[in-house]
Prior knowledge:
It is built from 23 helices and no strands. By secondary structure, the chain is mainly α. It has two domains: 18-210 and 228-414 and 433-465, Growth Hormone, Chain: A, CATH 1.20.1250.20; 466-525, no CATH class. Helix 1 runs parallel beside helix 6 (143-174) and helix 6 (143-174) packs antiparallel against helix 16 (362-372). Residues 413-439, 482-515 and 518-526 have low confidence and may be disordered.
Amino acid sequence: xxxxxxxxxxxxxxxxxxxxxxxxxxxxxxxxxxxxxxxxxxxxxxxxxxxxxxxxxxxxxxxxxxxxxxxxxxxxxxxxxxxxxxxxxxxxxxxxxxxxxxxxxxxxxxxxxxxxxxxxxxxxxxxxxxxxxxxxxxxxxxxxxxxxxxxxxxxxxxxxxxxxxxxxxxxxxxxxxxxxxxxxxxxxxxxxxxxxxxxxxxxxxxxxxxxxxxxxxxxxxxxxxxxxxxxxxxxxxxxxxxxxxxxxxxxxxxxxxxxxxxxxxxxxxxxxxxxxxxxxxxxxxxxxxxxxxxxxxxxxxxxxxxxxxxxxxxxxxxxxxxxxxxxxxxxxxxxxxxxxxxxxxxxxxxxxxxxxxxxxxxxxxxxxxxxxxxxxxxxxxxxxxxxxxxxxxxxxxxxxxxxxxxxxxxxxxxxxxxxxxxxxxxxxxxxxxxxxxxxxxxxxxxxxxxxxxxxxxxxxxxxxxxxxxxxxxxxxxxxxxxxxxxxxxxxxxxxxxxxxxxxxxxxxxxxxxxxxxxxxxxxxxx
Length: 526
């Protein structure tokens, strides 16, 4: 009878997960695709006529991206705090409706300054979308389900970026000049239409939280709540009674947060090199259609690598190795790009190595952060927001001197770098000339950024190994003192769920002293 009940429970859980995949995951994937389609449109529009039509000069193109980031940065943390206290099924679609209107406005712009205003407000509207969906997915899925789903979410974003080049090429071939409207304007109008559909569907189908989603029946709600508590240690269950300030203080004391913030900020800055491929090829002499199309294979390969890496990290429960080895491959590509190897075919292969190596690790890093920092929903929401805000801030502060469009295709000028840091340190010009004179500035800097990511993730790995060693030592004490055989092996093999089940077993054996030691050691994981 127990076996039959367990089988029925598994079937019910599978049905719930499939329902979530259809309603939440598919919407998140499609939404991230459209978001990145919109973000990539600016670069594709620039090489498809926007530069000439609006008379874009100097680094005005870079400022369009920076102003978007300023808006994005200003709303990151407030948006996730709002989301944790509002209904996601209403809040997220509202952002998409605003985003749709602003994207359509991009199709109607008449000047560079109009783009500045629109891009800033668009950044505010988009700020809550991706962190919001990452937070919501982390609320509904268990640890063993999370990695592959965040990988799918991230890869759909990459696909959107690559699809933009194909759609822009089609627009240039078929719609350029139709009704007197340029092809790049048609692209923004098309994107606006997709975003409007996304908002309408999201308003109807998105879930809220496990305890208040209206389209779940009573049994499904109970199961969803039970699943959401499954991976929470005891201290996370009781932290719901804390005030927001207390939760923020608890988060600030979390030793894992800072390593993940550094890693996330730096890896997204290094990933900026992937976004200059279209501009680089245009400056090397390729036509607009070819430059747009060359971005697509790069994106498809990154998608495949990302999905595969996400599934492998779930299958073998090895987040660290699924970050380390791809980043080592990306370093090889960056070294080749830094030297600007020729012919172009070899340079293109270097782009593939760099983009796929970095791109396939982003979802694994975010998954690792979501399951390591805290299981409490509000603390996790703040952590994700802080990570994304730091990433946006770092990108905003560095992109103008790492990837100025005026330096394309070689990005070898260092005057901006010297100017940026002149307030704090006098850079040795002879050293810079020796080190960078024959290297691509952007990719050379990115090499050091990737090394920093590896160092940050290695720090997380060793901190977790240290906690695991402490917990196993305490399990051995329980096993030796209370005759609970192989308890530490059960933890090591993950046949019990760490803290909670260890405490339960220790309590059953009346090992009060051991129970207190376990609590003391595991409380640091808040």
